[in-house]
Amino acid sequence: MKSKESAPLKLRILAAIPCLNEARYIGSVVLQTKKYVDQVIVIDDGSTDNTAEIARAAGAVVIKHRQNYGKGTAVSSAFKEARMRKVEVLVLLDGDGQHNPAQIPEIIRPLLEKKADVVIGSRFLETKQFVPKYRTFGQSVLTWITNLGSRARLTDSQSGFRGFSRKAVEAMDLKEKGLSVESEMQLVMREKGLKILEVPIKAHYDRKAKRNPLAHGLSVLNRIMRMIVERRPLIYLGIPGLLILIAGMGVGVITLNRFSQTRTLAIGHTLITLLLCIVGILILFVSLVLDSLRNRFSELEATLLRNLETLQNSKEKR
User: Fold this and answer.
1) Cα–Cα distance between 16 and 33 in angstroms, integer?
2) Predicted pLDDT of residue 305
Protein backbone atom coordinates (compact mmCIF):
# COMPACT_ATOMS: atom_id res chain seq x y z
CA MET A 1 0.00 0.00 0.00
CA LYS A 2 2.86 2.36 0.73
CA SER A 3 6.61 2.78 0.43
CA LYS A 4 8.88 3.98 3.23
CA GLU A 5 12.18 5.76 2.94
CA SER A 6 13.97 5.01 6.18
CA ALA A 7 14.19 2.47 8.97
CA PRO A 8 12.19 3.26 12.12
CA LEU A 9 14.05 5.32 14.70
CA LYS A 10 13.13 5.71 18.35
CA LEU A 11 12.09 9.34 18.81
CA ARG A 12 10.66 11.47 21.58
CA ILE A 13 8.38 13.78 19.57
CA LEU A 14 7.15 12.92 16.09
CA ALA A 15 5.00 15.09 13.83
CA ALA A 16 2.94 13.42 11.12
CA ILE A 17 1.29 15.35 8.29
CA PRO A 18 -1.34 13.50 6.21
CA CYS A 19 -1.82 15.27 2.89
CA LEU A 20 -3.06 15.05 -0.68
CA ASN A 21 -1.83 17.35 -3.46
CA GLU A 22 -0.40 20.01 -1.14
CA ALA A 23 2.70 20.96 -3.15
CA ARG A 24 1.97 24.65 -2.62
CA TYR A 25 2.10 24.49 1.17
CA ILE A 26 3.85 21.31 2.30
CA GLY A 27 7.40 22.64 2.09
CA SER A 28 6.84 25.57 4.42
CA VAL A 29 4.72 23.45 6.79
CA VAL A 30 7.52 20.88 7.10
CA LEU A 31 10.22 23.52 7.61
CA GLN A 32 8.25 25.24 10.36
CA THR A 33 7.26 21.98 12.04
CA LYS A 34 10.86 20.74 12.22
CA LYS A 35 11.66 23.50 14.72
CA TYR A 36 9.49 21.89 17.40
CA VAL A 37 9.82 18.11 16.94
CA ASP A 38 12.49 15.47 16.50
CA GLN A 39 11.25 14.26 13.13
CA VAL A 40 8.55 15.07 10.59
CA ILE A 41 6.78 12.38 8.58
CA VAL A 42 4.59 13.28 5.62
CA ILE A 43 2.00 10.70 4.64
CA ASP A 44 1.37 11.41 0.97
CA ASP A 45 -1.99 9.78 0.30
CA GLY A 46 -1.64 9.27 -3.45
CA SER A 47 -0.85 12.83 -4.56
CA THR A 48 -0.62 13.45 -8.29
CA ASP A 49 1.55 16.56 -7.93
CA ASN A 50 5.07 16.85 -6.50
CA THR A 51 4.03 16.98 -2.85
CA ALA A 52 6.33 14.08 -1.94
CA GLU A 53 9.39 15.59 -3.61
CA ILE A 54 8.93 18.97 -1.96
CA ALA A 55 8.33 17.40 1.47
CA ARG A 56 11.46 15.29 1.08
CA ALA A 57 13.53 18.31 0.05
CA ALA A 58 12.26 20.19 3.10
CA GLY A 59 13.58 17.43 5.37
CA ALA A 60 10.60 15.17 5.98
CA VAL A 61 10.49 11.40 5.81
CA VAL A 62 7.87 10.61 3.17
CA ILE A 63 5.50 7.66 3.31
CA LYS A 64 3.76 7.55 -0.03
CA HIS A 65 0.56 5.60 -0.64
CA ARG A 66 0.30 4.23 -4.16
CA GLN A 67 -3.20 5.66 -4.47
CA ASN A 68 -5.62 7.87 -2.58
CA TYR A 69 -7.05 5.70 0.20
CA GLY A 70 -8.55 8.53 2.27
CA LYS A 71 -7.52 10.66 5.24
CA GLY A 72 -8.44 7.97 7.74
CA THR A 73 -6.01 5.53 6.15
CA ALA A 74 -3.29 8.19 6.11
CA VAL A 75 -3.86 8.89 9.81
CA SER A 76 -3.72 5.16 10.56
CA SER A 77 -0.34 5.05 8.79
CA ALA A 78 0.83 7.88 11.05
CA PHE A 79 -0.15 5.96 14.19
CA LYS A 80 1.53 2.82 12.85
CA GLU A 81 4.79 4.70 12.34
CA ALA A 82 4.54 6.24 15.82
CA ARG A 83 4.07 2.81 17.37
CA MET A 84 7.06 1.41 15.45
CA ARG A 85 9.25 4.25 16.69
CA LYS A 86 7.84 4.07 20.25
CA VAL A 87 7.51 7.85 20.35
CA GLU A 88 6.63 9.65 23.55
CA VAL A 89 4.41 12.15 21.72
CA LEU A 90 2.78 12.16 18.29
CA VAL A 91 1.51 15.41 16.76
CA LEU A 92 -0.92 15.42 13.85
CA LEU A 93 -1.46 18.51 11.72
CA ASP A 94 -2.74 19.25 8.23
CA GLY A 95 -0.45 19.97 5.30
CA ASP A 96 -2.52 22.75 3.72
CA GLY A 97 -1.16 25.58 5.86
CA GLN A 98 -4.33 25.77 7.94
CA HIS A 99 -2.51 25.01 11.19
CA ASN A 100 0.32 27.07 12.66
CA PRO A 101 3.26 24.82 13.63
CA ALA A 102 4.36 27.51 16.11
CA GLN A 103 1.49 26.29 18.31
CA ILE A 104 2.93 22.77 18.57
CA PRO A 105 4.52 23.53 21.99
CA GLU A 106 1.05 24.42 23.29
CA ILE A 107 -0.29 21.11 21.98
CA ILE A 108 2.45 18.90 23.40
CA ARG A 109 3.04 20.63 26.76
CA PRO A 110 0.13 18.91 28.61
CA LEU A 111 1.29 15.57 27.19
CA LEU A 112 4.87 16.00 28.36
CA GLU A 113 3.60 17.12 31.76
CA LYS A 114 1.36 14.01 31.95
CA LYS A 115 -1.76 16.14 32.31
CA ALA A 116 -3.56 14.53 29.37
CA ASP A 117 -3.42 11.54 27.03
CA VAL A 118 -4.81 13.47 24.05
CA VAL A 119 -4.67 17.21 23.37
CA ILE A 120 -6.94 18.69 20.70
CA GLY A 121 -6.39 22.12 19.21
CA SER A 122 -9.80 23.79 19.23
CA ARG A 123 -10.77 26.60 16.85
CA PHE A 124 -13.83 27.33 18.98
CA LEU A 125 -12.52 27.28 22.54
CA GLU A 126 -11.99 31.03 22.54
CA THR A 127 -12.67 33.48 19.72
CA LYS A 128 -13.88 32.01 16.43
CA GLN A 129 -14.16 35.15 14.35
CA PHE A 130 -11.46 33.92 12.00
CA VAL A 131 -13.53 30.84 11.06
CA PRO A 132 -15.96 31.32 8.13
CA LYS A 133 -19.58 31.24 9.30
CA TYR A 134 -20.53 28.25 7.13
CA ARG A 135 -17.67 26.29 8.67
CA THR A 136 -18.69 27.33 12.17
CA PHE A 137 -22.23 26.07 11.62
CA GLY A 138 -21.18 22.81 9.96
CA GLN A 139 -18.49 22.03 12.53
CA SER A 140 -20.92 22.78 15.36
CA VAL A 141 -23.40 20.22 14.01
CA LEU A 142 -20.70 17.55 13.55
CA THR A 143 -19.28 18.25 17.02
CA TRP A 144 -22.72 18.03 18.65
CA ILE A 145 -23.44 14.66 17.01
CA THR A 146 -19.97 13.31 17.86
CA ASN A 147 -20.28 14.49 21.47
CA LEU A 148 -23.67 12.81 21.71
CA GLY A 149 -22.28 9.52 20.46
CA SER A 150 -19.08 9.58 22.50
CA ARG A 151 -20.56 11.19 25.63
CA ALA A 152 -17.69 13.68 25.64
CA ARG A 153 -17.93 17.47 25.73
CA LEU A 154 -15.54 18.94 23.18
CA THR A 155 -15.81 22.21 21.29
CA ASP A 156 -14.05 21.05 18.09
CA SER A 157 -14.40 17.35 17.32
CA GLN A 158 -13.17 17.78 13.73
CA SER A 159 -9.86 19.51 14.42
CA GLY A 160 -6.94 17.85 12.66
CA PHE A 161 -4.37 19.54 14.92
CA ARG A 162 -3.90 17.26 17.90
CA GLY A 163 -1.32 15.49 20.03
CA PHE A 164 -1.18 11.99 21.52
CA SER A 165 0.79 10.40 24.34
CA ARG A 166 2.34 6.95 23.89
CA LYS A 167 -0.63 5.43 25.73
CA ALA A 168 -3.05 7.11 23.31
CA VAL A 169 -0.99 6.11 20.28
CA GLU A 170 -1.16 2.47 21.34
CA ALA A 171 -4.94 2.74 21.84
CA MET A 172 -5.76 4.25 18.44
CA ASP A 173 -6.94 1.24 16.44
CA LEU A 174 -8.88 3.04 13.71
CA LYS A 175 -11.16 1.60 11.04
CA GLU A 176 -12.41 4.73 9.24
CA LYS A 177 -10.82 5.47 5.87
CA GLY A 178 -12.31 8.87 5.15
CA LEU A 179 -12.76 12.31 6.65
CA SER A 180 -14.77 11.14 9.66
CA VAL A 181 -11.61 9.76 11.28
CA GLU A 182 -11.47 12.58 13.87
CA SER A 183 -14.91 11.57 15.14
CA GLU A 184 -13.84 7.94 15.30
CA MET A 185 -10.81 8.98 17.35
CA GLN A 186 -13.10 10.70 19.84
CA LEU A 187 -15.23 7.56 20.16
CA VAL A 188 -12.11 5.44 20.71
CA MET A 189 -10.73 7.92 23.27
CA ARG A 190 -13.85 7.57 25.38
CA GLU A 191 -14.00 3.80 24.99
CA LYS A 192 -10.37 3.50 26.14
CA GLY A 193 -10.82 5.97 29.01
CA LEU A 194 -8.20 8.41 27.73
CA LYS A 195 -7.97 11.86 29.31
CA ILE A 196 -8.75 14.54 26.72
CA LEU A 197 -7.79 18.20 26.93
CA GLU A 198 -8.50 21.04 24.49
CA VAL A 199 -6.26 24.06 23.93
CA PRO A 200 -7.17 27.08 21.79
CA ILE A 201 -5.65 27.40 18.32
CA LYS A 202 -6.15 29.64 15.32
CA ALA A 203 -6.57 28.28 11.82
CA HIS A 204 -5.89 30.02 8.51
CA TYR A 205 -8.52 29.98 5.76
CA ASP A 206 -6.86 31.84 2.90
CA ARG A 207 -7.72 29.36 0.16
CA LYS A 208 -10.85 28.04 -1.47
CA ALA A 209 -12.17 24.80 -0.01
CA LYS A 210 -11.18 21.69 -1.98
CA ARG A 211 -14.60 20.11 -1.57
CA ASN A 212 -18.15 21.35 -1.68
CA PRO A 213 -18.78 22.27 1.99
CA LEU A 214 -22.37 20.97 2.01
CA ALA A 215 -21.55 17.66 0.33
CA HIS A 216 -18.50 17.21 2.55
CA GLY A 217 -20.47 17.95 5.72
CA LEU A 218 -23.30 15.58 4.83
CA SER A 219 -20.83 12.82 3.96
CA VAL A 220 -19.02 13.15 7.28
CA LEU A 221 -22.33 13.37 9.17
CA ASN A 222 -23.53 10.17 7.50
CA ARG A 223 -20.39 8.30 8.55
CA ILE A 224 -20.55 9.67 12.11
CA MET A 225 -24.16 8.51 12.49
CA ARG A 226 -23.24 5.06 11.16
CA MET A 227 -20.29 4.78 13.55
CA ILE A 228 -22.43 5.74 16.53
CA VAL A 229 -25.16 3.25 15.64
CA GLU A 230 -22.63 0.48 15.00
CA ARG A 231 -20.98 1.02 18.39
CA ARG A 232 -24.13 1.43 20.52
CA PRO A 233 -27.10 0.02 18.60
CA LEU A 234 -29.17 -0.71 21.71
CA ILE A 235 -28.98 2.93 22.77
CA TYR A 236 -29.28 4.76 19.46
CA LEU A 237 -31.65 2.31 17.75
CA GLY A 238 -33.16 0.29 20.58
CA ILE A 239 -34.39 3.22 22.65
CA PRO A 240 -36.05 5.05 19.70
CA GLY A 241 -37.58 1.74 18.60
CA LEU A 242 -38.97 1.15 22.08
CA LEU A 243 -40.41 4.67 22.24
CA ILE A 244 -42.09 4.22 18.86
CA LEU A 245 -43.55 0.90 20.00
CA ILE A 246 -44.85 2.49 23.23
CA ALA A 247 -46.38 5.33 21.21
CA GLY A 248 -48.10 2.78 18.96
CA MET A 249 -49.45 0.90 21.95
CA GLY A 250 -50.69 4.19 23.42
CA VAL A 251 -52.59 5.03 20.24
CA GLY A 252 -53.90 1.46 20.26
CA VAL A 253 -55.26 1.85 23.79
CA ILE A 254 -57.03 5.07 22.78
CA THR A 255 -58.46 3.35 19.69
CA LEU A 256 -59.77 0.38 21.71
CA ASN A 257 -61.24 2.70 24.32
CA ARG A 258 -63.16 4.62 21.64
CA PHE A 259 -64.30 1.35 20.04
CA SER A 260 -65.63 0.08 23.37
CA GLN A 261 -67.64 3.28 23.80
CA THR A 262 -68.96 3.82 20.27
CA ARG A 263 -68.68 0.35 18.70
CA THR A 264 -67.10 2.15 15.71
CA LEU A 265 -63.55 1.31 14.64
CA ALA A 266 -61.45 4.40 13.85
CA ILE A 267 -59.63 3.22 10.71
CA GLY A 268 -57.07 6.06 10.79
CA HIS A 269 -56.10 5.44 14.41
CA THR A 270 -55.93 1.70 13.75
CA LEU A 271 -53.56 2.16 10.81
CA ILE A 272 -51.37 4.52 12.86
CA THR A 273 -51.28 1.94 15.67
CA LEU A 274 -50.22 -0.85 13.32
CA LEU A 275 -47.62 1.33 11.60
CA LEU A 276 -46.01 2.52 14.84
CA CYS A 277 -45.99 -0.95 16.38
CA ILE A 278 -44.51 -2.60 13.28
CA VAL A 279 -41.82 0.09 12.85
CA GLY A 280 -40.97 -0.01 16.57
CA ILE A 281 -40.66 -3.80 16.60
CA LEU A 282 -38.49 -3.80 13.45
CA ILE A 283 -36.12 -1.16 14.85
CA LEU A 284 -35.84 -3.07 18.15
CA PHE A 285 -35.13 -6.28 16.28
CA VAL A 286 -32.44 -4.63 14.15
CA SER A 287 -30.82 -3.09 17.24
CA LEU A 288 -30.67 -6.50 18.95
CA VAL A 289 -29.18 -8.15 15.87
CA LEU A 290 -26.56 -5.41 15.44
CA ASP A 291 -25.62 -5.54 19.12
CA SER A 292 -25.24 -9.31 18.95
CA LEU A 293 -23.06 -9.06 15.83
CA ARG A 294 -20.95 -6.31 17.38
CA ASN A 295 -20.33 -8.39 20.50
CA ARG A 296 -19.53 -11.45 18.41
CA PHE A 297 -17.03 -9.57 16.24
CA SER A 298 -15.42 -8.07 19.36
CA GLU A 299 -14.97 -11.57 20.80
CA LEU A 300 -13.47 -12.83 17.54
CA GLU A 301 -11.11 -9.87 17.36
CA ALA A 302 -9.96 -10.41 20.95
CA THR A 303 -9.41 -14.11 20.24
CA LEU A 304 -7.37 -13.36 17.12
CA LEU A 305 -5.22 -10.84 18.98
CA ARG A 306 -4.55 -13.34 21.77
CA ASN A 307 -3.63 -16.03 19.24
CA LEU A 308 -1.29 -13.67 17.40
CA GLU A 309 0.34 -12.62 20.67
CA THR A 310 0.79 -16.26 21.69
CA LEU A 311 2.28 -17.10 18.28
CA GLN A 312 4.65 -14.15 18.47
CA ASN A 313 5.79 -15.11 21.97
CA SER A 314 6.42 -18.69 20.90
CA LYS A 315 8.54 -17.49 17.97
CA GLU A 316 10.57 -15.23 20.24
CA LYS A 317 11.25 -18.14 22.63
CA ARG A 318 12.60 -20.21 19.75
Assistant:
1) 10
2) 66
